[in-house]
Amino acid sequence: MKTDYQIVTRSPMPGRVRTAILAACLASLAASLPVYAERVKDLASVQGVRNNQLAGYGLVVGLDNSGDQTTQTPFTSQSMLNMLAQMGVNLPLDQVRSIQLKNVAAVMVTATHPPFARPGQTIDVTVSSIGNAKSLRGGTLLMTPLKGADGETYAVAQGSVLVPGAGASAPGARPQVNHLSAGRIPDGAMVEREVPTALGAGPYVIYELHAADFDMASRMVRAINQTMGNGVAQALDSRQIRVTAPEPPNARVAFMGRLENIEIAPVKSSPKVVMNPRTGSVVMNQLVTIEACAISHGNLSVIISGNDLADAPQTPARLVADGINLLNLRAGVNLADVVKALNSLGANPQDLLAILQAMKAAGALKAELEII
User: CA nearest 62: which of 179, 131, 146, 160?
Assistant: First the structure.
């Protein structure tokens, strides 16, 4: 059986058509990429709507001989005797002096009073030993008033203390997992008094940015006005934004609920290095770079140059220790590579902190340096 094949030739696609198709493909690809944006509620908070700190002094009882050594912490015995006296239990003076309470620990109780909390609501509390108790595991916190900065009682805490650690002891050894002298009581305090919280004054609500930024303030004002209406928002400075809101409570809550979910294009982050001298931690973002410089710290030396070297044309920067060339880096390298190189030389965290501070002072570290 004979089959005839026919070859069909087509003219090449015109250049304009190919360009149009390529542009359409790129547009569809860009549309499919995720667009990251932040909401107003993630960037700012309402002025006056805030948490309040509470603290109180109390006793934890029911410990398994792991409480305070009352000979060294007399306030524990005194607190226990005062509590017993209020309950009608009075001990002779000679017994008071010799009392030993190994299953009682004096503690500080802390909590956060959230905004709009009403009497009867419960909040979590943290219980921390202030004496020499070995462990609070298995203890029960007795009724403890929690007071604010004004000295008024806003909540009362009581309940079983949850300690996420464990420990054991034997002659010459004492293994321990996590911390035993602090714990939490979920929903351990009941609010007894509310903190007045004004949701704006008059026709205005003030939003405060978490970090002062003129660019972000301008972007937020523009986004709010585009969504809620022209002239609704006005920037007072780089942190405060005044928003005109309806005064009836129900309408104001609905208005602010809609406003808080408005999305704002994020501002490009700036180079930043965060250091913690207590722990030796160094955290940086990807925008950090290094300019040409030379540093000597103890037996460590760092040389970063913008000129090519004959022996290393692609890596014009070097690190040396005791005069020995150990590693080459190129000028303008990011800080992560410099820190890695210093670690390879055996630099301890304090060496890193000192070198980075010196580089910032010399203008070689192109980043904001924050010490926490």
Answer: 160
pLDDT tens, position by position, 56-113: 999 999 998 888 887 778 888 888 888 888 888 887 766 656 667 788 999 999 999 9
Q: What is the full DSSP assignment across 70-132? A: TTT-HHHHHHHHHHHHHTT----HHHHHT---TTEEEEEEEEEE-TT--TT-EEEEEEEE-S-
pTM: 0.65
CA distance 117 to 194: 6
CA dist., res. 330 & res. 307, Å (int): 9
Q: Helices (H), strands (E): how many in the chain?
A: 8, 23
Decide: 8 and 236 in contact? Cβ < 8 Å: no
Q: What is the pLDDT of residues 192-205, one digit of tens each?
A: 999 888 776 688 89
Segment 240-280, tens digit of pLDDT: 999 999 988 889 889 999 999 998 887 777 788 888 877 77
Q: Helix, strand, or coil here: 37?
A: coil
Q: Give the DSSP H or E segment for 253.
A: helix 249-259
